[in-house]
Design brief:
Order of helices and strands: HHH
Structural class: mainly alpha
Distance between the termini: 47 Å
Number of domains: 1
Largest sheet: none
Shape: rod-shaped
Length: 58
């Protein structure tokens, strides 16, 4: 998705639409930032459960 924003930003800049290009670059940077922060958040969800949580199940 970020690549699409960068490409559209390039086209807008070539057409002289600098404000639109800047907005798309900011969106692309935000996409990259979000993509980079996904890993640790997912790992926090998959942490192992304690044994006591399963202790009395039959």
């Amino acid at each position: 998705m970020a690549e699409q924003h960068y490409e559209q930003a390039r086209l807008n800049a070539e057409a002289g639409q600098m404000s639109e290009a800047a907005q798309l670059i900011l969106k692309a940077l935000d996409q990259e930032r979000r993509a980079g922060s996904v890993g640790p958040q997912v790992m926090q969800l998959i942490k192992p459960r304690s044994v006591s949580a399963w202790g009395n199940r039959s």
